[in-house]
Amino acid sequence: MTRAREAEHRGTEIRFDGVSHSYGDRTVLADIDLVLSERRIGIIGVNGGGKSTLARMINGLVVPSSGTVTVDGLDTRRKGSQVRRRVGFCFTDPDTQIVMPTVAEDVDFSLRRSGLSREDRRRRVEQVLATYNLADHADHPCHLLSGGQKQLLALAAVLVIEPSVIVADEPTTLLDLRNRALVAETFAGLPQQLVVVTHDLDLVADFDRVLVVDGGRVVIDDAPAAALSGYRRIALHSGSGPGPGTGAGSDQET
């Protein structure tokens, strides 16, 4: 790969230095040292391995018990608000981040502090709702949406603010095949750096880099083909991992 081509694949520098984390007396991450700068990064692993905790540290939702996490030099512990302006986060359960009564209002809420005029906000909301096949639901109550539609709405509300980095925790878990394909297509075209925690191996098969997290450690860090092959061996040994293309399951606790 030429230097110019390599530069195209580089984005924000996300750095983990000596990071460990515990919930009570249970260690969920241990001695993590990473530098993430590729445009599309997948994080996979069996349930309880620590992958969601790792992802949530990127925008300061979880602060490490020891060590530091920085985003372009900003310490997530000390500069959390600045980090969160750069790093959007999409949760597994969309109900945790849908806050307004109707679909359009919920996406618009994300733009309230953007400085955009009301008309510019309206246009941007219409554009992102059309992208996610939610335009016909703009005035619908959010609580009447299906689980899959709620997931798409949550993703739309993150993308509408155009952060530098998007972290998505199991973004396809609640989606049918059609909407999974829509999310995958959208991810492929995003200019932002993308970090995705998933059990859907097809989703990360063409990413730039894939991490396998198991037992609180990054046990594989490689190109997708090698990482997925190694993960399948780990999953087969543990008896708890899904097969390729499986979107079931989540890792919300760890």
UniProtKB/TrEMBL annotation:
Superkingdom of the organism of origin: Bacteria
Signal peptide bounds: none
Keywords: ATP-binding, Nucleotide-binding, Transport
Boundaries of every ABC transporter domain copy: 14-240
One GO MF term attached to the UniProt entry: ATP hydrolysis activity
Any one GO cellular component localisation term in the record: ATP-binding cassette (ABC) transporter complex
Keyword check for Transport: yes
Family the UniProt entry places it in: Belongs to the ABC transporter superfamily.
The protein's name: Cobalt ABC transporter ATP-binding protein
Organismal lineage: Bacteria, Bacillati, Actinomycetota, Actinomycetes, Mycobacteriales
